[in-house]
Structures are given as C-alpha cells and as structure tokens.
Amino acid sequence: MITIRELATASGFSPTTISLVLNSSPAGRHIPEKTKERIRELAHKLGYHPNQFARSLRSSRSHAVAVMVPDISDPYCAQILLGIDKSLYRSTYLPVLIDIQNSRARFRKHVATLLERRIEGVIAVANSLQLQTEMLDVFAKSRIPVIVIGRESNPEWISSVSVDNEMGARIAIEHLYEIGHRRIAFIRGPKRVVDSVRRWQGICDFANGVSLRLDSKLIVQLEAAASSSEAGFDAMNKLLRQEGRFTAVMAFDDMTAFGAIRALTQAGLKVPDQCSVVGFDDVAAAAYYNPPITTVSQSMEELGNLGVSSFLHATQAPLDNNGVGPQPVQHKVKPVLIIRGSTAAV
Amino acid sequence: MITIRELATASGFSPTTISLVLNSSPAGRHIPEKTKERIRELAHKLGYHPNQFARSLRSSRSHAVAVMVPDISDPYCAQILLGIDKSLYRSTYLPVLIDIQNSRARFRKHVATLLERRIEGVIAVANSLQLQTEMLDVFAKSRIPVIVIGRESNPEWISSVSVDNEMGARIAIEHLYEIGHRRIAFIRGPKRVVDSVRRWQGICDFANGVSLRLDSKLIVQLEAAASSSEAGFDAMNKLLRQEGRFTAVMAFDDMTAFGAIRALTQAGLKVPDQCSVVGFDDVAAAAYYNPPITTVSQSMEELGNLGVSSFLHATQAPLDNNGVGPQPVQHKVKPVLIIRGSTAAV
DNA sequence: TTGTAAGCGTTATCAT
DNA sequence: ATGATAACGCTTACAA
C-alpha cells in the first residue's frame, strides 16, 4: 500500500504539496494547474489511497456514525436503514451498523467498540426505552450526539424523529368508519410500548368525536414486548372465540395484522369481504401480502433521512453554540394512510 | 477524550507500562498483579478508551470487514446479515455495511472508501456476476480477500458460500411429486441468473428420473434481473390465461411465490386446496405469509456464518502460505425442505 | 510556489 | 519491573 511519501519521491514533489493538491486545500490555491494535474494523475496511476487512520489521528475526526438497530432482521428496521444509508451516502460519513439483538450484553460490548473507534454520533432505531437511557448516559459523557428514530417517546433533551402515532391511529379508524364499519375490534400493542399508548389515544379521540362505542369485548391486548405475526394470530383467535361480532379489526402494526389475517383466513373468513383489517407501519411485506394490506405508512425511508439530517445538524451545531452543545430537535412526521386490499366497505 | 499519556501521569506509570497491562502483552508478564490491578481500575474510572486510529496506524490492522449487500431492504439479505453479524460479533472484526443499491456508481465510490479505511476483507452478498469480476480485480490488487455469499456461480479462484441449488430444486419437485402432483407449472428465474439455471437443471434431472413430462405451456420465464412479487403475480396470471391445467406451481423463489399466490387467490383459486405453491429461500415472510409457504430453506443465517468463517480463514492463511495467498474455498450447503401450508396432496 | 518539521496516540524495541 | 524513544502516515503552521 503506497504512502504519501512514496508518492512524493515518485513525483518529485514534497508530501505537503501532494496533500494540498489531493485535498484541494485552500492553502494550495497557488499551485499551478499543471502540477496538480500531474500529481492527481500519478496518484491515480499508482493507486494511492490516503490512510484514514493517519488522517483521523491527525484531525481527530472519524467520519463514522454508529447506526444502531434492535434487530437487523426486523423488516421495520430494514426500511429505515435504507433511508439512513441513502442519506449518509451523500455525506462524508460512513455508517457503522450495530445490531443490538435486543441484548444488553451486546449493547455494552458495542459501546466500548464505538468509543474506541471515535464515532461522531449515534443514530438509534427504535430502541427500548431502557437502553435509551443507558445510552444517553454513556454517550453524553463523551459529548456524542444521539438521535433516536422510530418510536415516539423520548425525554425532551434528546433528538428524535418519529411518526405522529396518535394521528396515524386516527386516520386508520377514520377510514374504517367512513366505509361503514361500526363494530370494530382492536388488537392493542404492548402496554409498555409508548406507541401503543399514543395510538390508543388517537382511537379514543376519534371514537369520542363521532360517538362510536368501543366494546371492551372487542379489545385484546398484546403482552410480549415485541410484536410478531404469531402474537397477532393468537390475538385474532381470541377475538374469534368470544361472542361479540365485528366487521373490522385494527391491528397494532403490520406484523400483527399479518397474523390476524392468517387466523381469519384459517377460520374460513374472507379478508376483506367478511372482515376488514388495517395495520400500521407499511412494512415492505404489506404491499405483497395476501391480500396486500391497508396500513398507516410511517414512510420509514423518510424517517431515516430525517435521522441523518438531525445528526448532521447536531455535529455542525457545536460550532455555532458556545460549548453548551446543540439544542435537541424533535421531528414528528405525518403518517399517511395507504389503502390496499385488506379493507372494504361493509 | 483521555489518552494513554494522561492515564500515565495520573497513575504515575509510563505509557509503556499502561499499554502492556491493558493489552495483557506477554512482555508485561513480570508486572506485579497489584500494579496491573491499579492501572486497570484507574483506566476504567477515568473512562479510558484506546484510540483505534493510533492503534491501527501503528499495527496496520483495521479490524474491519466490508459487508456488501446489493440491496439492504431485500429480505433475502436481512437473514444473511443476521448470520454475518452474529459470527462477527465473536471475532475482533467490525462490519462496515455497504449497500450497493444495485448501482455501479455507488460500488465504485465505496471501493475508494473501503481502501482508505484499509478494510481487511470483503464479504459480498449475492452480487451480480459483473460486479463480482470488477470487485476481484480491484481488491485482489490490494490482496484483500473476497468472499461471495449466496448465489452459486463464481470462478474457482474465489471463495464462496452458497446453497446447492440443483438439490434444492430437486427436493422441492420431489415433494410435489410425492404428494401426487403430476401437472406442475413452473415460474423460471431470469436466464442471466446462475441460480435459475442450476435449479432448472435439478428439476429436469428429477423429471427424467421419474419420467415426468414437463409441458412447455406450463413454463413461464421471468425477465427482469431481480425477482419480485410483482413479477410472480404477472407470471401466474399468464399461466392462468393459457389453457393447460395444473395442480401445482414451482416458483423461482419466495418473492415470486408470494406474487403467484396473490394472483391465484384473486382468481378465486384456493391455495393449497386447488393449487399448491412452493418457493425457494425461506425468507422470513415465508413463515407468516397467508398461507405460510412451503419452501426450500437456504438456511441463510448459516450462509452468513460460513461466510465469516471463510473470511477469518482467509485472513489467517497468508501466515501459513508463503506469499501465494490462501486457497479459495467453495462451500456448498445443503438445502432443506420446509413444509408449510401452501402445498397439499391432490 | 514549494518544503521542513512537529505532532496526533499507540506500541515495539531497546535500555535501565 | 518500568521507562525512553522512535515510528506508523498524514496535515498544517511556518519557512524559504
């Protein structure tokens, strides 16, 4: 691997000149174009690639951001990652993907790694509240900005990007209501997840507004911390076993909806003809499920984009701000209803 | 951020001693346990984290591997990533995730980044053949080992981990045959994809063996390079429009199968009662699709694991090998049939 | 217009 | 048993 000094000897110029040219430094503005040309050419020909370690060591800038996900195989994460990656690609930052695997031990081991690599920020996708707090402590101590993407929640003193869950739930139930559904069943998210609470709030608000009665028999509560299609399947079966009738189901999220639809189908009920189902998230599979499901889109790619902007903003800010650190920003994006084949008029 | 020198002054020892202790270097074996204890404690108390840049600069080892995926939001990648990540976690290597987004421009820009960061290897998931060749040139020049995971294909002079596609296709059709299907339709993968060819080979072999006739009317060919549920949907409709009857469909992969099932359902045909469908890959969604699909499992997590072992092997090898570089290894894993709800006896 | 030299934080080598 | 020193490759004052 060729170094700048070798390049210097090879070209007859000094390392300084090479450096100035290759970085287009303002200090090198008086170097004649011809020289620059020659140097660049030679660098290319010899396959010179500046050593980032040396560079980082000198400049104490790593140009790396940690991107933390609770579970990389979660389709919810995938879409957000896509957005993050696309945005980061235009910046000078390289993402260091960290999969926490919902394990505290892993989290802790990774923290050390990240600090050693001097990452300049953390973009965390939908971490559990507990991890967040811990994260804040440890990264704040090193003045590393943390941006949380995904779940609404956070203390005000941390930057976040999330969807307006309350509004999302409202537009979903509104849709069902408008196409004539009155007896609607609900699969509520786990109580400990903030999103569940917000979404339920949206539902209650709407129901109150139009004097729609929410029948407690038609409400099941998800228990496990993580949502899954299995949980949705079980919940739906519980709903089917009780006597109350319903024409539509609002699932906590898409995964839950998938399970619910399977249960419905297995019970011989056609979706959407005999029962409508709506999800939440607009996970990739929502579009190709059988049937494709009507859902509330979080536009997760955009969440990712916004997360990156927030990070970029945060790293710039210290310059403006006299040592206090940048003000955290709370982005909240508007959800959009995507109508597909899992809902129909009664 | 505290440095080793600050730690030295704070502790009263020299940087050398600190380094020896913190790295448990053999050279430090004569340092009394008490001293070591004290140093470690202080390091922890002051939150000392060795600067990896300095370390890498000194040792010219980055402890980083590039993990290249063609498209991060592809569920096929997700599972493999999971395996890679889990294996890498136990090693000293940090993955640098690179999403190529199927774009040559992105690929090229990233190559520079990777070389600058002195990554020690590349684990590439299912890249198109063209990119592979290019990759080999550029990385081979820098003696960086490349491992290709996923699609069977490669020249023998490159390490790879892939599933036995021929066998996979065979066990799939064998399953259909055993439960009584004789008129089987096929959605073949794109011609340019090596996997398609292999899988088709497996099918023909089996058909020959049992003298099963393959009706050309019942074969549709996917055109686009990438498989998608939409393509499967269209292909299935084409199949439905022609007059030949069939009781089962073998799809190129799971995504195709999803689309096919949707088309079948929309046409009023019940899966599996009126038509069985098998996929290939065992993507996560295969388990929670409606109905859950019978498919050939590539055990992608294991592919990921094997990819990492191959990489680890390759980086170790130069030591054994006198400068020639390690022998590439071709791993081929056995696929397994996962029987779920999309197939039934005739 | 170009070059010299110091220093970023670590660790390996050689002293003491 | 511990310490001084040089070197890894690069950037940037400062000199020329």
Description:
The structure is a homodimer of 346-residue chains. With 346 residues, chain A is of the alpha/beta class. Chain A folds into 3 domains: 4-50, 434 Repressor (Amino-terminal Domain); 62-163 and 300-334, Response regulator (Rossmann fold), CATH 3.40.50.2300; 165-298, Rossmann fold. Chain A contains 13 helices and 12 strands. Chain A has helices at 4-11, 15-22, 33-46, 52-59, 75-90, 104-116, 129-141, 165-178, 194-209, 229-241, 254-266, 284-288, 300-320; strands at 64-69, 94-99, 122-125, 146-150, 159-163, 184-188, 219-221, 248-250, 276-281, 294-297, 330-333, 336-338. Chain A has a 6-stranded parallel β-sheet, sandwiched between helices. A 6-stranded mixed β-sheet of chain A has the order 7-6-8-9-10-12, sandwiched between helices. In chain A, α1 (4-11) crosses α2, α5 crosses α13 and α8 (165-178) packs across α9 (194-209). The radius of gyration of chain A is 26 Å and the shape is elongated. The relative contact order of chain A is 0.12. The model of chain A has no long low-confidence stretch (mean pLDDT 91). Chains A and B meet through α4, α5, β2, α6 and α11 of A and α4, α5, β2, α6 and α11 of B. Chain A binds a DNA duplex (16 and 16 nucleotides) through residues 3-5, 13-17, 19-20, 23, 25, 27-28, 30-32, 35, 50-51, 53-60.
Summarize the structure in short.
2 copies of one chain form a homodimer. Chain A has helices at residues 4-11, 15-22, 33-46, 52-59, 75-90, 104-116, 129-141, 165-178, 194-209, 229-241, 254-266, 284-288, 300-320; strands spanning 64-69, 94-99, 122-125, 146-150, 159-163, 184-188, 219-221, 248-250, 276-281, 294-297, 330-333, 336-338.
